[in-house]
Write a structure and sequence with these properties.
single chain, four-stranded parallel sheet, about 220 residues, Rossmann fold, about 10% strand, 2 domains, binds cobalamin, globular, Methyltransferase, Methionine Synthase (B12-binding Domains), Chain A, domain 1
């Protein structure tokens, strides 16, 4: 069944109900809001990632920053998002594989793997063959994976600006070992907070959201959409 595109107000309503479920620690309601009331009613994975799960996580961050939420509540909320993403991954209709191989990793030291997971899931559902390495990947270990797999694209995620050094180190070592054979994408909130990072590194690709990354990766790698 094809449904009309969700309006902003529908997405805002889903986000508000999802956030309320996260704050109550109600895992079943959180899954119901995103899967039954979102995905099953025609809201796309991209919209759910960006305007429901992602934006609720950012709101959790604001509450935490203002001391309106404790660390345990933030952990509980993030665990709920991981559960919900696993359900979405299983249920979302994946596009036909496009033959392009991508490795997604958080740079060394970076513990925020949920943003990178959003990126990995969006690429995967869009048809890319994705290896998601998770949080805090030592640069040596990342290079070993790249040497073994020789992917078309490596997507490096950094949230904290104090991990800019890890991003710089990873990019320069990937270039030294592979030249231009592996395209490099750099992204995550560290790029917003460290204004010169992307300008200095000139990666093949950057994007502010998972959805934008998918579109740009398609163009960069010559995938028909
Ligand atoms: C959950 C959380 C944690 C969890 C992480 C759990 C996990 N498994 O991810 C834990 C508890 C580990 C944590 C730790 C810390 N955190 Co924290 N955390 C958060 C929180 C609340 C949510 C993160 C999240 O899920 N974001 C949701 C997604 C959607 O974020 P996103 O960045 O917008 O992602 C999109 C884009 O960036 C892009 N993207 C992401 N990766 C890539 C890669 C590529 C290649 C591309 C192209 C695009 C791209 O696509 C994504 C999807 O559209 C944020 C709040 C926030 N605003 O994000 C704080 C936040 C990031 N944390 C913060 C802080 C301060 C910390 C700590 C320093 C706290 C401490 N004192 O220990 C540590 C640092 C840990 C470390 N060494 O890395 C601050 C950072 C402030 C700043 N300006 O520096 C924030 C903003 C909270 C706040 N408001 O104060 N945190």
């Amino acid at each position: 069944m094809t449904l009309t595109a969700p309006r902003r107000s529908d997405l805002a309503d889903l986000q508000a109900r999802y956030l309320a479920a996260q704050l109550r620690g109600d895992r079943r309601e959180a899954v119901r809001v995103v899967v039954a009331d979102g995905l099953d009613r025609g809201v796309s994975l991209d919209e759910l990632i960006e305007h429901v799960v992602g934006s609720a996580q950012r709101e959790i961050g604001r509450l935490w920053e203002r001391n309106e939420l404790g660390v345990a509540d933030e952990h509980m909320a993030t665990a709920i998002s991981n559960l919900v993403l696993a359900q979405l991954y299983e249920r979302a209709a994946a596009a036909e594989r496009n033959g392009k191989d991508v490795v997604v990793a958080c740079v060394e030291g970076e513990l925020h793997d949920l943003p990178a997971r959003l990126v990995a899931d969006a690429l995967d559902v869009a048809g890319f063959d994705v290896r998601f390495l998770g949080a805090n990947v030592p640069t040596d270990a990342l290079l070993a994976v790249l040497a073994a797999r020789r992917p078309d694209l490596v997507a490096l995620s950094a949230t904290m600006s104090f991990h800019s050094g890890s991003v710089r180190d990873a990019v320069s070592r990937i270039r030294a070992e592979h030249g231009g054979a592996i395209a490099i994408a750099v992204g995550g909130a560290a790029c917003d907070w460290d204004g010169v990072l992307v300008a200095d590194l000139q990666p093949d690709l950057t994007a502010e959201s998972a959805r934008e990354l998918v579109a740009r990766a398609r163009r960069l790698l010559g995938v028909e959409s």
